[in-house]
Each structure stands twice: as structure tokens, then as C-alpha cells.
Amino acid sequence: MLAVAAAAVVVGAGRAHATHQATNYALTASNGTNTISWGAASQLTDPDHTITDAAWSPDGSRAVFVTGDGGIGTIRWSGSGTFMPIADPEPGVRRAGPKWVGNGTTIVWAAKSATGRWRIEQTVSGYGGAITTVSPDDGYHYLDVDTNDFSRIVVERQADDGAGNPVGPSEIGYLDDGAWTRITTDAASPALAPIGNRVAFVRGGQIWACDFSGGNLVQLTANATTHTDPAYSPDARLVAFGQDGRVAEAAWDGSNADNPSVPPWLSGLSGVPAYRPDKIERVVRLAGEDRFTTARAISQSHWATIDLADDRRIRANAVVVTRSDTFADALAGSALAAAKQGPLLMNPPDRIDSWNLAEIARVLPRGGTVYLLGSEAALGPDVEDNIVAWGFKVVRLAGPDRFATAVEIAKAIDPTPDLVLAATGMNFPDALAAGAAAGSRNLPGRDSSAVVVLTNDGKLPPATKSFLDGLPDTSEIVGVGRQGAEATSGYGSIPLYGADRYDTARALARTYFQPGTRLGLATGTNWPDALAGGALMGTIDGPLLLTPGTAAALAPQAREIAEQRSGSVHTGVVFGSAAVVTDSQAAQFAYAYGGANIWRRMVNPYDVGISPTT
Predict the structure, then answer these.
(1) Domain residue spans in the chain?
(2) How does pLDDT run across 472-499, given as a tens digit for each residue?
(3) d(Cα 140, Cα 87) in Å, to the nearest integer?
(4) Which fold has domain 3-277?
């Protein structure tokens, strides 16, 4: 377990200084022990790992660092939760200076094999991602990387001595799609400003700064000592660095270059400095008085009004409508809504809901397509006739039962999909969490497709079997949940399930979602909010986690994913009212992915997932 406690610190070494924009922040340092220190008063301790080159995520919720065995790992700012590995140690490979890139979904660092050159590597900010090299293979060493919110990457470059060692003068520059561009020579240890195009660096033992052209040069320190490891503050007003074995700060404009300050609260701070941003995350509740108004609130949170030219929300291409009284025909609908790029609405079986008709007209132009899920017994003629009368095209996807309806929905997405998620149609949790996962695979610009089909618990219904029999060998079949896995085992399916519905939702999140900026949370004890919520989460590329919404505590599986992904997550979306998912659970959810600051609570905003910052 990790702990936060008061302790003294000792001198260490290393390089790490990535900084991200924030108004509030704290200066920390790591020194090769098992701590990250905040002055002399407190420190974050991981008793199981040494911490070298620690740097903070954009929201300050997680630190990434090099472990004693050469791996890369992260821990929470508070000490809660478990250590999470990012890259396993490799024999003979040294790593240094990991940093969070941009919105926190990727991490970069410098790496060197025994006789190889230093290179810059990158992977997602979660365990198990592929590691790629992003520096050119041109005979030079690329080391001491830094980055910021805009995903710009600056590095130090040196020549090679022929035996895998850096030699000669160093220079700094930036990488852009693997290409190197020089900023200035006789410079080392670059630190990128969180805003603007300024970069600080070490030259002749002093700290300097310039712009990306190498111009507008400013000397930040001019006192008679050697300085190391510069780091910009999140507001770009200060630059911290090592000085005489302690951390000091200088003004960004060089105004105190002759006498850099060591404030009292920094007097015990030693090691490699890194500023921890203290950003306020947000937890968004999308809810109405009932399942109808909740589904419309979810639609309005993301999809634009067609006759408002300045509406920043996304333009819908279709609308999916399902019956409101049972989940039978709706289970595959979340994946369809994401694939067709539109909201999912709920409607009574026997009549059109006038507010639903208004919502369709709000997001779709006349002539736009509305998908009805199920036969006329599910959504009657009045529903279809009224939608057509308003000038919309209706496509009904239906079969003689829920299994055949799910197959028709799957065919409307892709009759030969790359991925088939098969879950029981006799209950809702597994299929709803799978719907968000399948929907995310169908997003525009992705060269993949995914569908959800249904099993009759551990048996394969004729319609589902016929669909699976007609798939090409390239289609991957995954049995989601114990029953889905049992029913599809004859097809060599990949089983994906846990001990219960909450475990299975966690498994889907781990398997099909890379670290991202948003997480969804819905009750696992009822289906309407999770259905419409899954459609949105698939559209904005985030997993749908489940929790027993009226219990005292958030499901531990949901908390675990939120903590592990907290370095990149800035928004948690809770589906349904406080009667469905309590305010206490929403707060626990926000704390799990948030930084040190209090989170913002929002109800039914109109900007969920319309940009990387929402």
C-alpha cells in the first residue's frame, strides 16, 4: 500500500520536468528513493518501488516514474490505489525521464539498450500498450524528452561515439512526426513551457530560455553555481531547477537571475523538480425525471441543434428509437447508435412521445433516418406513422424475437463485422456494457466494425447461430459474460467475463478501451439509463462502468478503473438521477479519477464529449 506521511528527504539525481497548464500547483521532487516530496513537510511514499524522474499527469492525479528495475509505472497523488505498471523492465535497457503527453493518454520517455543509442519511446498511459519509437534512427542519441498540453515533444540530441555512448556538444530541438528540427545548439535538458513556444535549457551550467526559433534568448540564472533539470511552472511564470543540492526557482523573464529564490517551503526539497498541476475535474450527471427525459438529456448533452449555426455540439446523422418498457429489443441498440452517429431515445410501444418527436426534429434535418428497434409489437404503427409524417425516413430493424432483432441490428452496422460481442439476451448488464465497447469500434475514421448479438443464456438461438455461421474467418467472436462464452464456445470464441456483472464491465473496459479522457457510470441493477448512456459512451469513446447505484459504496471494479485511468480522465459521466446512482457514489467516482482539488458537479450540461476538453 502507498502512504502519505511527513518525512525528511535526501539528495538524488535524474531528469524529469514535464509541466501542464494549471492555475494552482505544487512543486515536488524525486530523488531515487521511494518518495516524491513536497518541501520538507510531506511526501508520497511507495514502499515497493524506488521513484526516479517523477513527472505529473495533466490534472496532477498521477505521477509517472522510472522504477528501480528500469520499468515505468504510475501512482496516485494521494497514495490511494495500487501501483500501475506502464512498461515492464527489460534486461539491459535503461529508461529515463517519462512524461505525460498532451491530454495524458500517452507517455514518452528516453530508453537505451546496452550498446544502442538513446531513443524516445511512447506508449499509452496504461499497462499493455505497444511501445513505439518516435525519434529518428539517424545515428544520433535522442534523450531527455519533455512535452506539454499541446503534445509538442522537445528533446536533447548528441552524436554517438561508435560504441553507443553520447559524445560531443548537445543541442535541443523538437520532434514532429518523427522528424527532428533544431531549436538551438550548446544546450541540454530542455523544459517546455506549458503555454506558448518557450523552452528552458541548461547552457554552461546556467538556465536559459528561448523560443522555438532559438530567438528571444533570456538568461534565467546568473549566480555562481551549477544548475540542473529546469522545469516550468504550470502558469509559465516560474522555472524550477536543481541548485547546490536543493530545488530553487527563478522568474520566467530573468528578473531575479542573480539571486534565484529558495522559499522557506522549498528549503528541504531536493532532487529532480516537477510541478504537480492541481486541476479541478468535473463529474457530470445526465438525468431526467424518468427514462424518457433521461434519454433526451443524454441526447442534448452531445448532439447539436440543426438550425443553430453556432452550435458547437456534434451533428447527428441518425436517431435510434427503442421501446421503453423492456430491454429485449434494445440490447444491441447502443452499438447501432454509435455506429450511425446519433442519440438513442426511448418511446412507449403504442404511441409517439411528442417530446421525442421534437428531439428528433431538433437533431435531424427532414429526410434524416430514424431507426426503430423491434416489430410493430415493440413500437406500433402510430410511432412510425408520426415520424414519417414529420418528414423523416424510418428504417425498422426487427425479427420474430429479440435474438433475430439483434442480428438485424448487427447487419445494419456491418453484415461481416471485424468483432462480434455475444452476450446473453435474457438479462441486460453484460450486453449493455458490451454495447459501449462495440460502439467505440464503429466510430468514423476507425478501420474496424463491431456488433452485439444475443444468446439465450448458455444456448445459441437459431438466428444468432445462422449469423455466426455466415461470418468470414477474419471475424473475431468474443463471449461476453459466462453465458455468452458458453453459448459461443463451439466457434472458438474468446471468453471475456468476471465473477459478476461489475467484473465483466471492468473486463470490457480493460480490453476494448485505451486510456481516454472520459468514463461513464450507470447502475447495474436496471437497464434504461445504461442503454442510452452506453450509446453516448460508445460515441465519445469511453467505457461504461457499472455499480450498484443505491449501495453505500461505489463498485470496487468501477473505482479501480477510475483510479488507474485517472491520469488522462477529466470527465466522469453518471447516468440517471440520484435515486438511481446516489450522490455519494458519484462523489466517490469523481474522487477516484480526480486530482487533489475538489471536483465540479454539473447536471445536464450541453457539452459532453464535443472536444478533448469536455
Answers:
(1) 3-277, 282-603
(2) 999 999 999 999 999 999 999 999 999 9
(3) 24
(4) Neuraminidase (2.120.10)
